[in-house]
Write a structure and sequence with these properties.
- This protein has three helices and two strands.
- By secondary structure, the protein is mainly alpha-helical.
């Protein structure tokens, strides 16, 4: 089983948001707090949470059932 392209795209977007590389382009806002943390740290934590939730959703909804796997085998 391979992953469809849209799954790779969602992972790429989520990892792009979770890695706080883009905060260096925001002048003067490095010290602002979100949820009691620096903004870049809060973005990394929330991005990781979204990645985890998406992975859980994939396992729950997209995982092949044993019966389906047996039907595909010759």
């Amino acid at each position: 089983m391979y992953l469809q392209r849209w799954i790779w795209l969602v992972y790429a977007v989520l990892f792009g948001l979770a890695v706080p590389w883009y905060w260096r382009f925001v002048p003067g806002d490095a010290d602002r707090l979100w949820l009691g943390m620096p903004r870049w740290a809060a973005a990394a934590v929330l991005g990781s949470l979204l990645i985890s939730l998406f992975t859980c959703w994939l396992f729950q909804r997209r995982w092949p059932e044993e019966a389906e796997a047996r039907e595909e085998q010759p």
